[in-house]
Amino acid sequence: MEIKIKALKFNADEKLVGFVEKKTARIEKFFDNAVKEAEVTLENLKEGKKAKIQVHIPGDDLIIERTADTFENAVTGCVDAMKEKLTRVKEKIQAK
Questions:
Q1: Of the candidates 23, 41, 34, 38, the residue with the CA atom closest to the CA atom of residue 77
Q2: Distance CA 43, CA 7 (A)
Q3: Closest alpha carbon to 26 in 82, 70, 93
């Protein structure tokens, strides 16, 4: 799976990029390796740190956004929510 990371209005250091790649790579396991690309957008806002994950699966794009006090917490929240969403989509497809 290809992971694209976009840092808006700041430069992400190697430690943050490594963390995002490690966390996001786990998403692929929840949809039978059909996830080809994931886009992660990080943004520093006044109200906190925002992370947005967009996953491209066959026939659909899934988007999850979370805001937290740190980028790590925002990314972790996004990944957890995306795992649940991918599981629901997979079950819905299998039920057809």
A1: 23
A2: 6
A3: 82
Tokens of 72: 């790590």
Q: What is the C-alpha to C-alpha distance for residues 90 and 96, in angstroms, rounded to an integer?
A: 10
Q: Is 9 helix (H, G, I), strand (E, B) or coil?
A: coil
* Cα torsion 46, 67, 10, 70: sign: positive
Tens-place pLDDT, residues 63-82: 999 999 999 999 999 999 99
Question: What's residue 80's pLDDT?
Answer: 95
Cβ atoms of 60 and 80 within 8 Å: the answer is no
- Give CA–CA dist 52/41, Å, rounded: 5
Place of tokens 């790649």: 21
Amino acid identity of residue 2, one-letter, is E
Closest Cα to residue 3, out of 19, 24, 23, 18? Answer: 24
SS3 state at 12: coil
| pLDDT recorded at residue 57 | 83
